[in-house]
Amino acid sequence: MFEYRHATFAEVEEIFALINGFAAEGLMLPKTYSTLYETLPEFVVAQEISSGKIVGCGALHCTWDALAEIRSLAVSRDFHRRGIGGEMVKILLADGRKLGVRKFFTLTYNEKFFASVGFKVVPRESLPQKIWKDCIDCPRFPNCNETAMTLE
């Protein structure tokens, strides 16, 4: 069984390891400790109740008027295909709707997963330029190969 909740400072190390493990394989973008601490309130985690281990994480990042990004979504390989990613997306969407978010987007290498939870592929150019401010720090900038997807 799993508990889903907002992240705490005590979990930054596990979140860092989870995200950067996948980033080392080129499957997602890396995050620094500094970035994780600064954005900690954006994160939800999935914790395995029996072990206390953080097995998943994801963040909701507000970018512009009623627009927010689902990002840094990662689930430990040992726990894939158990609905953890989908459950975290549901929580992040609910959090966003409470804030008044009308449109969600993601930039992803895992198009199939996000399509399974209702996101649709869109041209990157259809998203406002405001969302690209974080891209300047990306190791792949300016040659981004992520897929843009939205959910309204």
What do these coordinates show?
The chain has helices at 12-24, 33-38, 84-99, 111-116; strands at residues 2-6, 43-48, 54-64, 67-75, 103-108, 120-121, 147-151. It has 152 residues and is α+β, with helices and mostly antiparallel strands. The longest helix is centred in the middle third of the chain and has 16 residues, at 84-99.
Tags for this model:
152 residues, 7-stranded mixed β-sheet, 27% helix
SSE layout and pairing:
Elements: E1 2-6, H1 12-24, H2 33-38, E2 43-48, E3 54-64, E4 67-75, H3 84-99, E5 103-108, H4 111-116, E6 120-121, E7 147-151
Parallel strand pairs: 4-5
Antiparallel strand pairs: 1-2, 2-3, 3-4, 5-7, 6-7
What average pLDDT do the residues reach? 92
The SS-based structural class is alpha+beta
Strand content: 25-35%
Shape: globular
N-end to C-end Cα span: 30 Å
Largest sheet: 7 strands, mixed
Order of strands in the sheet with most strands: 1-2-3-4-5-7-6
Question: Would you kindly provide a brief summary of this structure?
Answer:
The chain is an alpha+beta fold and 152 residues long. The protein has helices spanning 12-24, 33-38, 84-99, 111-116; strands at 2-6, 43-48, 54-64, 67-75, 103-108, 120-121, 147-151.
